[in-house]
Every structure is written in C-alpha cells, then in structure tokens.
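Re: your question about Endopeptidase La

S., sorry for the slow reply, the queue was backed up all week. Below is exactly what I fed in.
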Amino acid sequence: QKKEEEKREETKKEKPKGENKDFCVSITPDNLKEYLERMVFEIDPIDEENKIGIVNGLAWTPVGGDVLKIEAVKIRGKGELKLTGSLGDVMKESAIIAFSVVKVLLDNETLKAPKIPSEADAEGKKKKKALKVYNAYDLHLHVPEGATPKDGPSAG
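Result:
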C-alpha cells in the first residue's frame, strides 16, 4: 500500500507528455514575415491557359479549400452520364442534377444545340425522329484528383 502511494505521488510530480515550459516562441514585427511566409501546405498552380474539356472546380476542405480539375468528354452513346474518380455522394448527385438541368434548358431551347439528323431506311424514308443531342451522346465526367474522396458542402 505504501508503494502504491509513493507511485501516485511520483506521477503527480511528472510533467504531462508534450508539455515543455522551457520552449518559447517570440513573434515580433522584425520576425513576423518569416512566420507568415512559411508554406504549411503544398499548393498546386492553377492552369491559366484554357483547355478544352477541362474546368476548374472549387472544393471545401478542413484546411481551407482546393481547386479540382474536372474533365468532360462527349462520346457516342444513349444520353447517359458517366462519373469517374473518387467522388462522394454529394458531388455525384450535383452532377446528375446539373445534367438534368441542361436537358431541360435544351428542351426549352434556352440553350441551343444541333439536332442529330434522322436515320433513313433503304428507301430513303425517315425511320426515326431526329434525336436530341443529349440522346445521341454520353457525357463522361472525371475528377482525376487521386483517391481523395470529394464530398461535403462544396462538392456540388
């Protein structure tokens, strides 16, 4: 029992881990610039040149934010939206909603797009009604930012 009491007393005297009262940082007007210029996070440069099929998206992160490259390509298909990359549910839902809004704007002719010509049978008669551009192509969106999941309040 006496040994247990001695151990408790020794434990009370020990400094908690990570506490170092001898270490002190003094920031003054003379050394302020040194601390402000320190890069805590690596920042990738934003492309200043336009590239067809690539746009910059903005994302919220716990340490501020980030710029995401979003790649888009139109390929022959049936009007489907294909999403690749490590996207969270919010970003997937936002892409689907945006795709639907564009279809509505095309139907209302708020946005203009060429109609795909009708197919003709062997006798030259129209076989199918002219396709809307979004029914003739698939849209493939890809966010190539590694395996970082994109989700949360700014994912859309």
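Residues 2-143 form a domain with the Ribosomal Protein S5; domain 2 fold (CATH 3.30.230). The chain has a mean pLDDT of 77.

Happy to talk it through on Thursday.
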